[in-house]
From TrEMBL:
Entry's Gene Ontology cellular component terms: extracellular matrix
Record GO biological process: cell adhesion
InterPro entries, alphabetized: Secre_tail, Spondin/Thrombospondin_T1, Spondin_N, Spondin_N_sf
Protein's recorded name: Spondin domain-containing protein
Domain of life: Bacteria
Domain annotation Spondin: ranges: 17-213
Keywords on record: Signal
Signal peptide residue numbers: 1-17
Length: 315
């Protein structure tokens, strides 16, 4: 039994190490939605004003691999999308994301509130790690109050198709417009509930009161990228012991560059440890005793802004 178990573990580790050698890159972004909802552009049909207590529901955010996974123009809204558009509730949408994660078509759900409460507001998903295997972003927020209206982005890819930034898009912004979920026939902000029967596909609102005009902007700010495609020894640095068995890693600098930060990432590109080197020492030891056994990516950043990465094995 022990021999069988050891063989199984050895096989898994071999396959895992082989997979990691060709693993995909990740990028860290901050994603900020800033609203511009105003009476001049989006005034009520009734009196050209905004409704009482204009606000936004929490921003529901997911990263995934297939286009149109959660909503698409012309398609009937899911229950999760309908609930966000009509009430701002996110629990059904979160359940849909959980099912997609279980099916390996999505990998994470995040949520952020808008502040301050009002027509002009903003919400941010800060320092989110995007994996190349799940490079598409979808998010939604209800225009509140309204019958079934929302703002959102559907399947926005953060991959650029170029070699710069390890293939990730540099910082950029998009204008956002208002969509009707097709589940309520109300025509104005304060219209009484009037369930659509039958429901119609999601569509952009080009008529009053939204008038097809921009109502918000989203900015995707690229913070950093990490490529784990190659794990050759880091040039100019000597990391030992590797594999680590003592809970301590030593790093010596063969070119006498000044190390500024050291970062350790999981196999999925999540930052799990960061060390700030206050005295810019060229030779140092770092404590990794709190990390579980496994394979990680060690990134060394120097004071010139240059960085090198290599595989780190902790036993």
């Amino acid at each position: 039994m022990k021999k069988t178990t050891l063989y199984f573990l050895t096989t898994i580790l071999t396959v895992f190490a082989s997979t990691l050698s060709y693993s995909q890159s990740t990028a860290n972004y901050t994603i900020t939605v800033t609203t511009t909802w105003n009476a001049a552009d989006h005034g009520s049909i009734l009196d050209n004003n905004l409704p009482n207590d204009p606000h936004w529901s929490p921003l529901a955010f997911v990263t995934h691999k297939n286009e149109n996974e959660f909503f698409s123009l012309g398609d009937i809204a899911s229950q999760g999308v309908q609930n966000i558009a009509e009430t701002g509730g996110t629990s059904s949408f979160q359940s849909e994301v959980s099912s997609a994660i279980a099916a390996n078509t999505a990998d994470q759900y995040k949520q952020a509130g808008f502040s301050p409460r009002g027509a002009i507001s903003s919400a941010s998903i800060n320092n989110v790690t995007i994996n190349e295997a799940f490079p598409l972003v979808t998010f939604l927020s209800m225009v509140a109050p309204s019958p079934d209206w929302f703002i959102g982005v559907n399947s926005e890819s953060l991959r650029s198709g170029s070699t710069s930034n390890n293939g990730w898009k540099a910082t950029y912004s998009l204008d956002l417009f208002t969509y009707d979920a097709g589940t309520d026939d109300g025509l104005d902000y304060a219209s009484a509930n009037a369930a659509s029967n039958p429901k119609v596909g999601v569509f952009m609102i080009n008529g009053a009161p939204l008038n097809g005009l921009k109502i918000a902007t989203v900015t995707f700010t690229l913070n950093s990228t990490l490529s784990s495609a190659s794990f050759e020894n880091t040039s100019g640095f000597h990391v030992f012991p590797n594999p680590v068995t003592t809970g301590t890693v030593s790093i010596s600098n063969l070119k006498n560059s000044k190390i500024e930060t050291i970062e350790i990432y999981s196999k999925l590109g999540q930052l799990v440890k960061q060390y700030l080197i206050a005295d810019k020492d060229s030779n140092l030891q770092i404590d990794v005793s709190g990390l579980n056994r496994g394979i990680y990516i060690l990134r060394i950043n120097d004071e010139l802004g240059l960085s090198k990465s290599q595989k780190l094995i902790i036993k």
